[in-house]
Each structure stands twice: as structure tokens, then as C-alpha cells.
């Protein structure tokens, strides 16, 4: 079982990764449109 602190850290990093990949996806699409 994860402790509450570990769970918070996991949740935080998970949303960071999700936001980060969304940003990259946005950039990728703009680069495609520029091409």
C-alpha cells in the first residue's frame, strides 16, 4: 500500500506528465500546421 504522501506525489507527477504531454501535443500540432 502507498502512504498518503507517496500517493500525493504519484498523483502530482501523474498530472504533471499529463499536462506536459498535452503541451507537447499542442506544439506538435502547430508544427504540423506550419509545415
TrEMBL record:
Annotated protein name in UniProt: Uncharacterized protein
Annotated organism of origin: Fodinibius salinus
